[in-house]
Amino acid sequence: MFTVNEIHEAHTKVKSGADFPKYIQEIKKMGVKSFETWVKDSHTNYFGSNNFSTQSEAQYPDLSIQEISNKEEFARLLKIHQQGETDYFTFCHHCAETGVEKWVVDLDALTCTYYDKKGNEVLTEQIPG
Questions:
Q1: Mean pLDDT by 10-residue block, N- to C-terminus, for the chain (129 residues)?
Q2: What SUPFAM superfamilies has UniProt attached to this entry (predicted)?
């Protein structure tokens, strides 16, 4: 199975959203099936085969997540991030400001789904393979 340290090592290569697809392929090879990242503090739950799971520590002090999501503004800011114009911490701030509480990545389906605080889907996107 995989460790949080191995995943973090792969993540160090991610400088912007433009690097995300390569990161996904790398951790998929490690055995990661899915993960959910909580915007509040960027702790992440990772899931593998045979009910294996592990969790990372908080990456920064708690952010306040807006109660109401703004899908249009989030989509605009996500696009900017994916073009490499913002770093990860800035992206997390943008998520919080637009009401995104977490995202869930399915490495088999190659999808990333963003959710608001009520558990409603804000946006699902295909991850380039």
A1: 94 80 93 97 96 96 97 96 88 97 96 97 91
A2: YdfO-like (SSF160419)
